[in-house]
From TrEMBL, chain A:
It comes from Larimichthys crocea. This is Uncharacterized protein. It comes from the Eukaryota. The lineage of its organism: Eukaryota, Metazoa, Chordata, Craniata, Vertebrata.
UniProtKB/TrEMBL annotation, chain B:
PANTHER family: PROTEASOME ASSEMBLY CHAPERONE 1. One of its GO terms (molecular function) is proteasome binding. It comes from Larimichthys crocea (Large yellow croaker). GO terms for biological process: proteasome core complex assembly. It holds the Pfam family PAC1. Belongs to the PSMG1 family. This is Proteasome assembly chaperone 1. GO terms for cellular component: endoplasmic reticulum; proteasome complex. Keywords: Chaperone, Proteasome.
Amino acid sequence: MFVSAQNSAPCFKDFTLVMPAVAVGNVGQLAVDLMVSTLNMSRVGYMHTDCIIPMAGNNPYATCKEDVEELHTPAEVYTAAELKLAVLQIRAPIIQTKSKKFRQLLVSWIKASGFTRTVVLSSSHAYQRDDQQLQGTPLRYVVTPSLLKGSVDALKELGWRELERVAPFPGLTDANTEPRLYIPGGGITKGLYTDSCAEDLPLAVLLLFCSEGDNIPDAFTLVNHLNDWLHLLDTPSQKPNQWKIPTSWSLLFGSGIPPALF
Amino acid sequence: MHQCGTRGAGLQPGKPAEECVFYRQKDNPSVLICQVTCYVAEDQLFQWTEKVFDCLQHRELNVTVLSDSTVAEYKTADYVSCSSAPFLRSLHSGAFTGQPVCQSLEQPNIVTGLSAAVLNHCEVHRIAAVVYQCYSDVIGLDSVTMETYKPALTKLGKSIQLDPSPSTDVLRKFVRNTNIQSNLYI
């Protein structure tokens, strides 16, 4: 699945992997775009798989004329070696019937590459929140037991809110049923989390409750939230925006308006 | 030209065949032309591409894809007035060293479908490939749209024996065949 873009395979040992889930509002993917664009990350490889719908385009992070004509594929891996950070960007939907296969491929690749931890940036339908979740921050996290061991103090210090478990059959007051994890609109998030628990992988999910629309502010919220933990940018997140918007974000809502319309 | 290919299942009499056909020039066997008139579902694009490329020798392989799209899908800051369509845009893999015959596809535009699947394969396997996509403002086929591909065909004419300017009678024959199928607006 992973094909190196260079002549030799890159080394991911001791790296942190950040990846998005293709989820409501594409917030995770937008957040990852901000990371690659701001931290000037370089592409080290492609995820070449039949699980993702094909698409192709020129360099979405082009800054000058020279690097505009560089072909990019639906799933690519970027690194920032000085931060020991690797990022997997996914730009197309995952084929529904192949979602389990894709999760298995991901888990095997993560294990084989030796990442110290994986962070999945995701989102969930805001309209599915219960009364409690409507108040306070829209950000939540879930971690696998393997990651919890090393990060308990960090998470406590950050004051983050863990994603609440829900009753499997709302309305039924059967005390025997265990509350379960529920991430509607989260794509492969829940599946990837449960697979990682089973494989004892250190994985964290950071998600945001949101709706479809202009999700750029949501992307900023999520990436700043991640930055509070990983400290990718030197400046604290309260300062004016330090994230660089990539050129591919132009015309998100269509072409310019024909002047004759008015 | 030799012809070999597969015909789509469920052919109906009177309907044009939905198929994927490979042609090879008798005098120039190093050139292969693939004409795809069938629909390839998005979850089959990857497999289709792998199957085709598994039969080809990758060394010194050069791939050119001719594709089309509606100008409504083309995003630009300045409104594209009808007079500028049809126009050609290109996308090429990292291994492509030539000069495309037209402007490169600007952000935030992308290609999808078979062209994208072929480009992805060529990029990952370091095969030289270029896609020429024609943005058109008409639904059917017309000689103006067909002529848009001329620069690409002229360039290909250097390695394939190709007549870049077929007579308008030849082009008219293709257009007439397409028009007969649609009588919605008579």
